[in-house]
Amino acid sequence: MKFSEYFIPTLKENPSDAEVVSHKFMLRAGMIRKVAAGIYDYLPLGLKMIRKIENIVRDEMNSAGAVEILMPAVVSAELWQESGRWDIYGKELLRLKDRNNRDFCIGPTHEEVVTDLVRREIKSYKQLPINLYQIQTKFRDEVRPRFGVMRGREFIMKDGYSFDASEEMAELSYKKMYQAYVNIFTRCGLDFKVVEADSGAIGGNFSHEFMVLAQNGEDAIAGCSSCSYGANVEKATVSADSYPKNIDSQKYRMEEVYTPDLKSIDDLSSFLKISPDRIVKTVILSDGQNVVALLIRGDFEVNLIKVKNFLGWDNIFFASESIVKESTGSDIGFIGPVNIKCRVIADFSVKNMVNFVVGANKVNFHLKNVNFEDIAAKIDFADLRNIVNGDKCPKCGKGVISIFRGIEVGHIFKLGVKYSEKMNALFLDKDGKQRPFIMGCYGIGIGRTAAAAIEQNFDEDGMILPKPISPFDLYLLSLDYKDTEVREVTDKIYTELKSRGVDVLLDDRDERAGVKFKDADLLGFPYRVTIGKKNLQQGKVEFKNRKDGTNILLSIDEVIGKF
User: Fold this and answer.
1) For the purposes of burial, counting CB atoms within 10 Å of the CB of 242, is it exposed (0-12), middle (13-18) or buried (19 or more)?
2) In the beta sheet, which residues pair with residue 504?
């Protein structure tokens, strides 16, 4: 393809609204253009990269025995009401009505649609297992779309669904998809890690995320120094025996202390001359109907996902000032568990503490030397905090945890019968009894994979794209395409390489050499060949490897032989 005949509107300056590397370079390289918040056009280079990722996904999914279908983007509310998600999914679900005032939504995921399809067509265990997938545009009305196609509202996704007759067969389907995903991201040329994860709104009892390791990753990943354990911080467990018994052998009498305007842990710690791990924070949480007080050590952070799962709530958020006031009688910053008017739960981190400090439920006051017998409410203990650097590995118990940054590009779930039971999706087993399908769910963010590849492969000049997913294999740069000799050599290399299946972009523009070199580095194709009159006097052209930056002079035949 010739640059002059293609559509690559590159930009010289970084767009002001681009926060991360992938967003910046995809805009500058003319891969995408913004239409609205979280909604983008894919221009030729961006679409070409997307299609290459899709082809790898299709190849591995088909090899693993999955079958491609295409389901509608617009979904009837009736199906979502059957599963119960119509009322609980939240504002991310884009809802609409047709001309007959019937409710629909733009599918953010397709568990309901595929379950309805299978329950109508599959009647016997003899027709199982079956694994169906699609590559389709989805929509989730993110409250804060950002980072370009990394967290957009409209996005391209591969979503797949397996249906099995038994737990054993479902486990086999899950393992096949696990391996297929490993193959996909390996073939895409990505450095990634597979981690245990929370199942979130999709549901199910087990899941893994495939995380591309990147400095700008929006997810935190916990990894062990000694074993293969890896988990999203939302999911990573902290065992109850991670906390030593408190060294204080004597318990003291609870005492009220004047702490004027000291609302933060750091300020309180400095004022009382104690370390933050001697303070117990009280956090008031709600799901809109219920209220709970959570106790956690002052140097740790609450993991809302763990709390939500422990309580069995559909939603969870930090309580408003009015709810806090009603439950404690105090303002935020001075609340505590003594004489509190709601349920109390506590993280394992406080279970062995004695003589600790809490809020007094009285503005400008705290209580010190508090012990659990001073708290009237019955307390349930659980793992409710974020894992941190230096924690003991929950799997092997020997290694220590380190926290990495990553970008989620794939997520696989063991759904079990969550959807098949609710939607009465049944089959006849070998004994003639009706049973619900055992389901699995498997997603890949196609656009996110492209963005993640850029986040992992770039320098100050532009992208350094992995060869399997680069829009073109080679940037053929002609310094003076109007010159007869330069043009003849350029055209020869172009024609020969194209005949060998090499995807070449020929920069035939009438532009300054500096502009062409900058665009070549920005676009980040694996290789660049530069043809200029000076080197041709020696019968040579310049060959550059974008990844390692090496430049060598080769003959025309040697360049062609490289491919």
Assistant:
1) middle
2) 474
CATH 3.40.50.2300 fits 241-382, yes or no: no
State pLDDT tens for residues 248-275. Answer: 668 899 999 999 999 899 999 999 999 9
Alpha-carbon separation of residue 28 from 52, 152, 437, 544 (angstroms): 20, 18, 48, 22
The amino acid sitting at 523 is L
* Whether the Cβ atoms of residue 466 and residue 190 lie closer than 8 Å to each other: yes
Of 468, 419, 410, nearest in space to 159 by CA: 410
* CATH number of the domain located at residue range(s) 3-190+200-205+414-455 in this protein: 3.30.930.10
Reported as a pLDDT band with limits 50, 70 and 90, residue 207 is: confident
Coil, helix or strand at residue 291? strand
Percentage of the residues of the chain whose pLDDT score is greater than 90: 82
The mean of the pLDDT values for the chain is 93
pLDDT at residue 188, as a whole number: 98
Inter-residue contact 298 to 282 (CB < 8 Å): no
Residue type, 93: L
Burial of 170 per CB tally in 10 Å (0-12, 13-18, 19+): buried
First to last CA, the chain: 17
List of residues 6+ apart from 267 with CB closer than 8 A: none
465-522 tens-digit pLDDT: 999 999 999 999 999 999 999 999 999 999 999 999 999 999 999 999 999 999 999 9
CA distance 483 to 393: 65
Q: Which of 388, 393, 392 is nearest to 403 (CA)?
A: 388
AA letter at 277: D
Encode 279-297: b = buried (16+ Cβ within 10 Å), e = exposed: bbbbbbbbbeeebbbbbbb
Residue 280's SS3 state is strand
Q: For position 197, what pLDDT does the model report?
A: 79
CATH number of 472-562: 3.40.50.800, 3.30.450.40, 3.40.50.720, 3.40.80.10? 3.40.50.800
pTM of the model: 0.85
pLDDT band at 60 (very low <50, low <70, confident <90, very high): very high
Alpha carbon 250 to chain centroid, angstroms:
48
Q: Which helix (DSSP H) or strand (DSSP E) does residue 518 occupy?
A: helix 513-523
| pLDDT tens, position by position, 429-441 | 999 999 999 999 9
Residue pLDDT, tens place only, 380-389? 999 999 999 9
Q: Return the domain boundaries, the chain.
A: 3-190+200-205+414-455, 241-382, 472-562
Distance between CA 495 and CA 488 in Å, rounded? Answer: 10
| pLDDT average, residue stretch 541-551 | 95
Q: Which residues pair with 357 in a beta bridge?
A: 279
What span, in angstroms and rounded, lies between the C-alpha atoms of 476 and 494? 8
Asked whether the beta carbons of 439 and 26 are under 8 A apart, the reply is: no
Digit-coded pLDDT (tens) for 3-40:
999 999 999 999 988 989 999 999 999 999 999 999 99
Residues 6+ apart with CB under 8 A from 163: 118, 122, 128, 129, 130, 131, 132, 420, 437, 438, 439
Q: Beta strands 255-258 and 365-370: pairing type?
A: antiparallel
